[in-house]
Amino acid sequence: MTSGKYLLRKNCSKLKDLNIFLTLWQEKGIVEVLLMVLMEQAKAEALLRKNNLPFPKTAIIRSEKDIPQALKKTGLPAVFKIYSPQIIHKLESGTVIMGISNIEAGVKAYNSMMNTVKKRMKKTKIKGVLCQEQVSGTEVIIGMKRDKNFGPVIVFGAGGTHAELLKDSAMMISPLTKALAEELMIKTNIGKALLKEGSRAAIAFSKLSTILIKLSALAMSSKTIDQIDFNPVIILGERVTIVDAKIMIDEKGGRG
Amino acid sequence: MKSRPLDPLFNPSSIAVIGASRRDNAAGHGVLKNLVTGGVFQTYFCKPFKGKVFAVNPNAAEILGVKCYSSVLEIEEQVNLAIICVPAETVIPVLKECGKKKVKAAIIIAAGFREAGQKGMLLQKKIDEVAKQYKIRYLGPNALGIIRTSWAMNASFSPTMPRSGDVAFVSQSGALADSIIDWAVSHRYGFSAVVSCGNQENIDAADLIEWLADDEETKAITVYLEGVPDGQKLMAAMKAASKKKPIIALKGGKSAAGHAAAQTHTAAIATEYEIFKAAFSQCNTHIVDTVEELFDTAKALAQQPVCAQKEIAIITNGGGAGVLCADYCHELGIPLAMIKESTLKKIDDSGKMHRAYSRRNPMDILGDALPERYEVAVNALLSDPGIGGLIVIQTMQTMTNSRKDAEVIVEARKRFPEKPIICTYLGGMLSKPGMDVLDSHNIPDYNDTRKAALAMKALIERAVFVKRKV
């Protein structure tokens, strides 16, 4: 595994082509690439809408005075994350703060984060703090892995930090049709449970199948994306939100 | 049907063994002997190949009564299939001669190609050039060969010939196929074809499945695979073939360590084995865990109608066996039907049943059951529209008439052709007469209730596959 810094430099242009803006995160030697909505926000949001990929409401805080506006946009509670396209550091306390429920808490969190930056990340270019609505609900994982034998494999299952330990996931080979995407979800207990939850969940179910199909199409048309985690994807009522996205790029530019 | 590129591999009328040998420990001797006699180890099922056999060896006049030619080019008649038994280093000139002789199919037995480093890779590349130039389709290298029982063709170095049957077996492992043939002989298990695809350089499992899908002698295709040269091609072949007949797959290399540290949760979930399983099931292919299950399942799928209504019933003359079978059905997700009052009344009214019989599912017709009790219960349950299939268990008691019990099943098979019947004749020597009757009428019979439940599960799954639009 190459360092995240290397990955970012090498693939920045390709990623830009996808209009996916990235920050890098390194945790216990694993490089995480967090997909975030940033900078040319309007353009990015347009693309996400085009791809039917629902992300949490997001705002950028560049100075303390942006906080009220940002929180108004995302709603409460919110989560703050240090944002820098080049940031590579261990996930330490102070870089992500959750449960921000009013402006006062927001100001406190912002200042604490800036302190962390001053103390520990002197050389890192910080673009600000990313403010996102904090979403809670049923967590699922939607993912993609490019397999050397069969091509893009799409995974659906119970999600969260311990997704693979829950052993409640299923997978299918791309391309996915709507029928296949639904069949894929029904193979898991969490998918079955969702269907039993009534009409609002049925709408969420349909939205999930759309994400699966879009992910499959995205993987089929890209040669450079090697793995994708949308984890967790959070379902609350009929609402579906991709809270975190991790994308791994093949350094060699795809396996063809 | 119009001729297909693999026809000369499966149904050749003339075969040349190139590198035929006098030494009885050489592959070139074994292959020739298999063709001439049916098997190096002679069994009841061995017969000489029905077509023509030529031997090529420049240093011999005759081997095993077959005249030897110094080159395949000297054979006056047409050769459909060449079995190349020479060492890896001499395969290329031999294949060229085959090309000049207009041989359209070949089997390359030798190992030492892609799996043998740079030098082997180079040989492989050259073979592909020759095959392309002369439009030769070949099996291997590192392949056992092919057996076609209907042609009495043992074009392989397998030790013997299995019984003729309706299950085809495609194996990536030659050695495994050899042992399975040995097993099949002692269990009278029948094959339509056994093919070892070796390194799958030219003809791969997908090509073989595609051909077997239209083979009239094959009713079910079994596959043992470790890897594939082209996953999407395999999926397309499986999808198309599954519309015509069932495919059952066993994947080796389950434990192969994936990426030591998966970079994403998705990669940790999607291991190689799980991906293969997903691909198989997406293509309506049944997945099994063991070699025994592979052939047990194939037998049921080849010989029985699908279980269109997934609720089934169990009949037993032993309580314990019925309980175990019900447990296995539960474990495998096979629902047991609620037996209708009208059906129970029919059974009661027959006057043949002991008053203590269980009146539920599993239906215990008690240890002293004579064939007439089986007859009443089997007919009543199969007439019930809520019951899709039947597992019939027989335990061996003093009054049990195994042969007649089996004849009851044979009759029911004819009366209810659209519903599957799976038997579990527990025991050994004493229930053998019944087992033989079932076997000769192609009714699957397993020596364990779990195997019967697994077979029924496959028949239920097949009904789903047949209806599924992919």
Helix/strand-derived category of chain B reads: alpha/beta
Q: Averaged pLDDT of chain B, please? A: 93
CATH superfamily of the largest domain in chain B: Succinyl-CoA synthetase domains
- Could you say what the CATH architecture of the largest domain in chain A is? 2-Layer Sandwich
Instruction: Give the low-pLDDT segments of chain B.
Output: none
Alpha plus pi helix count of chain A: 8
Strand order of the largest sheet of chain B: 3-4-2-1-5-6-7
| Shape type of chain B | elongated
* Total count of domains of chain A: 2
Kindly provide the radius of gyration of chain A, computed on alpha-carbon positions and rounded to a whole number of angstroms: 18 Å
- Could you tell me how far the N terminus lies from the C terminus of chain B, measured between alpha carbons in angstroms? 26 Å
Strand percentage of chain B: 15-25%
CATH superfamily of the largest domain in chain A, by name, is ATP-grasp fold, A domain
Q: Largest interface, per-chain counts?
A: A-B, 30 and 25 residues
The string of secondary-structure elements of chain A, in order, is: HEEHEHEEHEEEHEHHHEEE
Largest sheet of chain B: 7 strands, mixed
Could you tell me the CATH topology label of the largest domain in chain B.
Rossmann fold
Look up the CATH topology of the largest domain in chain A: Dna Ligase, domain 1
Verbal overview:
The complex is a heterodimer of chains A (256) and B (470). Chain A is an alpha+beta fold. Chain A has 2 domains: 4-50 and 57-133, ATP-grasp fold, A domain (Dna Ligase, domain 1), CATH 3.30.1490; 138-249, ATP-grasp fold, B domain (D-amino Acid Aminotransferase, Chain A, domain 1, 2-Layer Sandwich), CATH 3.30.470.20. Helix content of chain A is 37%, strand content 31%. In chain A, the strands form 3 sheets. In chain A, strands 7, 8, 9, 10, 11 and 12 form a 6-stranded antiparallel β-sheet that branches. A 4-stranded antiparallel β-sheet of chain A has the order 3-6-4-5, covered by helices on one side. In chain A, strands 1-2 form a two-stranded antiparallel sheet. In chain A, helix 6 crosses helix 8. Mean pLDDT of chain A is 76; it is low at 1-44 and 87-91. Chain B has 470 residues and is of the alpha/beta class. Chain B has 3 domains: 7-142, NAD(P)-binding Rossmann-like Domain (Rossmann fold, 3-Layer(aba) Sandwich); 146-303, Rossmann fold (3-Layer(aba) Sandwich); 312-467, Rossmann fold. Chain B has 16 helices and 18 strands. In chain B, helix 5 links the parallel strand 10 (163-171) and strand 11 (190-196). In chain B, helix 3 packs parallel to helix 4 (117-134), helix 6 (205-213) runs parallel beside helix 7 (231-242) and helix 12 packs antiparallel against helix 13. The longest helix of chain B has 19 residues, at 449-467. The radius of gyration of chain B is 25 Å and the shape is elongated. The model of chain B has no long low-confidence stretch (mean pLDDT 93). The chains are: A alpha+beta (256), B alpha/beta (470). The A-B interface holds A 1, 30-31, 141, 143-145, 147, 149-151, 153, 155, 157, 159, 163-164, 169-173, 179-180, 227-229, 231, 246, 248 and B 227-228, 230-232, 235, 261-270, 272, 274-276, 278-279, 282, 469-470.
